[in-house]
Amino acid sequence: MSKLFHENKSIFLQIKERIEDQIVDGDLKEHDQIPSTTQMVQFYKVNHITISKGINLLVEEGIIYKKRGVGMFVAKGARDKLLNSRKDAFSVQYVLPMIQEADKLGLSEEEIVSAIKKVKECNDDES
């Protein structure tokens, strides 16, 4: 396995997420061409099928589209679609477990908000 990837998630999903990150960060904009499968195979040193699997998920989700014989491009509205999807996932992946743990600890809503603000301030100071 390439050292570019961690072992707790499938490589094709990590490749998919890296392309998504580039779109969310604005490095890839609507109708920009994404790197070819061959370029990604050479860069990531993984199997062609692995790359295609990640790419096909993005095509199925309407994040990228293919132009036959030309390449693959970022779809119109892809960034907004990804942001909305990630915001929905944020609540489930991060907020819900935090609230469940806070309930176990008997923390009030105000104490939770205070803890979040404190951590955010520390993080902002380090940036």
From TrEMBL:
Residue ranges annotated for the HTH gntR-type domain, each copy included: 9-77
Transport in keyword set: no
Pfam family, one: GntR
Keyword Transcription regulation: yes
GO-annotated molecular function: DNA binding; DNA-binding transcription factor activity
CDD domains per UniProt: WHTH_GntR
Keywords: DNA-binding, Transcription, Transcription regulation
Protein name: GntR family transcriptional regulator
Organism of origin: Proteinivorax hydrogeniformans
